[in-house]
Amino acid sequence: MSSTPKHIAIYGKGGIGKSTTTSNISAALAESGRRVIQIGCDPKSDSTVILRGGAELPTVLDSLRDRARPSLEQISTIGFGGVLCIEAGGPVPGVGCAGRGIAAAVDLLDELQVFEKFKPDYVLYDVLGDVVCGGFAVPIRDGIAESAFVVASSDFMAVFAANNLFKAIDKYAATGGARLGGVIANSIQTPYARELLDDFAARTGTEIVGYVPRSQAVAQSELYGQTVIEAQPYSEQAEIYRALARRVVGDHETRLPRPLNGPELKDWARSWGDRIFGVERDANNEARL
Amino acid sequence: MSRPLVGFHDGCALHGALATVAAIEGVTPLVHSTPGCALRGAFATAGAQGFRGAPIHLSPISSTNLAEKHIVFGGASRLREQIKNTLSVLPRGLLVVITGCPTEMIGDDVPAMVREAVTQGESVIDVGAAGFLGSAHGGYERVLAALAARVDELRLPAAPAAPGLVNIFGVVPRYDETWASDLDEISRLLAAVGLVANPIFGPGGGLSSLAALPKAVASLVLSPWGLAPAEALKAKAGVPIVAVEGLPVGADAVQDLLRRLAAATSLIDDAAVERLLISERRFEDFALDETLLALSRLGRRRVAIAGNSVIAGPIARFLVTNLGWDGRALVLTDEPTGDSGLSAFAGRVISTADGAAVKAAIRDAEPDFLIAGARYGALAGELAIPFAPIADLGGRAALSGGFTGARGVARLLAALTAAQTPVVETKRAAARA
Lengths: 289, 433
Ligand code: SF4
Prior knowledge:
The structure holds two protein chains of two kinds.
Chain A: E1 6-12, H1 18-31, E2 36-41, H2 62-65, E3 76-78, E4 84-87, H3 98-111, H4 114-118, E5 122-128, E6 147-152, H5 156-173, E7 179-188, H6 191-203, E8 208-213, H7 216-223, H8 228-231, H9 236-249, H10 262-288
Parallel strand pairs in A: 1-5, 1-6, 2-4, 2-5, 6-7, 7-8
Antiparallel strand pairs in A: 3-4
Helix pairs in contact in A: 1-9
Chain B: H1 13-22, E1 27-32, H2 35-44, E2 62-63, H3 68-73, H4 76-89, E3 94-99, H5 101-106, H6 110-119, E4 124-128, H7 136-149, E5 165-169, H8 179-192, E6 196-198, H9 207-211, E7 218-221, H10 227-237, E8 241-243, H11 251-264, H12 270-298, E9 302-307, H13 309-321, E10 326-332, E11 348-351, H14 355-364, E12 369-373, H15 377-383, E13 387-391, H16 395-400, H17 405-417, H18 427-432
Parallel strand pairs in B: 1-2, 1-3, 3-4, 5-6, 5-7, 7-8, 9-10, 9-12, 10-11, 12-13
Helix pairs in contact in B: 1-2, 1-7, 4-6, 7-10, 11-12, 12-17
Bound molecules: iron/sulfur cluster.
Cofactor (chain A): [4Fe-4S] cluster
Family (chain A): Belongs to the NifH/BchL/ChlL family.
GO molecular function (chain A): 4 iron, 4 sulfur cluster binding; ATP binding; metal ion binding; oxidoreductase activity
């Protein structure tokens, strides 16, 4: 592989499945012989938990508490397939500034020369996407990550978070920030979910790079503290993640999204409300007949 | 497009709060912020604009000096520690925790830390004074409003009864440069008519003056910055508010102030007022007589005045009504809000703390006499007009430079008649010498 690693940021609203998705992408890449670093940028510090089988991992910011400069070994652990797992960490909810924490952690990793030492092919940042302050935009700023992906479901709040990320990407693009790789459609279950996300992507001038169906395999693997790639390597879901991983790191067109403004987003949501609940109403009526 | 302020006249709210707290004897400030906040505050104590060089020691102000870990994880426990440490080395009294920008931004739960110390029997209060909340004058307002509103939570020793006590609000220590001298003269004037001033700051103030705040018969508000604490006391203890437009410069202004105070309180002795006004007028007339020749040589001037509202407005009023000068521009460098009601005394009234904007306003007014801080001497030289400095004078101005009452007029006349046109040092002239 080339000597300069490819940095990719994966954003998503809390609870949307971005850590599961990112970890499975990392696992798929590692499985095919790539050197991968996954950096969790979420104060919850559980991004890499299914890569490392639940092993304890002190966070980067924990080391800030005692002001001593930590070694790379102290703040990282090797997970499935040799993935280097790092958690930025952060304050407990309600105190301090998690946004500054992300910025401080990224600075510290830079000082520790993590990338020079580990020589990864890929660095994946798993970033909490519903926090809107500047700190959480650090991975897509200043040329850190070259492309960003957003994990979304058909849930309106997930779409809202994606739209916000698009705004941030537009803002920083002019000064060398990341470009948008595309949207990862997650937990696709109902027939309309896919259509809704397709429509959102079309309106914002973006692309869906993969559809990940909701699956038993994910839930089962997580119960064992593993990715699907590790626990059920021959499953259909594992194949889906492998395809997604190829797409995410492959050469593809990156672009500048066209986020919807407030009223546009509201109108769009309403029109989908009418469609979805219209469908349900019709179904109910049919059932009654 | 916005542009940076040049030659800013005020500090940030934290620095105003710090200067305010430090001027009350028995009260200790504790800065809860990053190190530069208290450090810059310490420079500022050398006089409003007196700081010129780098310090060789750390600031003597108690500060939590937050590091990055406190920003990320919260600085509340650092504050708890610093409250404890401060109380262990400094004399008891009142501790005022002043929070700066970083802690206000990350939302440290400062009140909880303060409550904790209070439950342990300490006397502590917190005031939010992040620089982004306003200027130094705004910081003064925040501190005094908090002290006034929460005075009975402060566990202060009970104040002795003080009939005829009048709280003085609106003069900001250090940032209104002649503060100590002006507060002293106001106190003297009130004493002459049977009232007792509560100046809060300086030798006439101190910890006990805080406990006395709600017991006053009136709150005298000398600038808009003093209104918030006066209103807090009115709401809390029914202390009536007497608001005047700045310090009383000259006997007429003293008369007006006493008339308004008398209307609000029934404690003023009319005969004493008469006696005081007679002596004030005699003093003022004497000063005018003594400087008459020099004043007539100056003639009727087109004057531009730049300074804080507590003093610049009253000087303009005196020059226009008593000397018949032509007020061309009045620049209020503390940026008071609301209508100053001063347009009768100057062609233009401008409110700006930006030194470059102050200069532009002075030039635009095409004055032939300038009254402003010493830093504007060079501008007067450039315009080739006489210049009387009323600020940036260093420590002595605080003690003896005030403009209150007839004695203040005497100092003003002395400054006017001593005014000279500053010589512009051009490079070539300097090279020739
Ligand atoms: S502006 Fe804010 S950060 Fe700067 S000195 Fe004032 S309080 Fe501190």
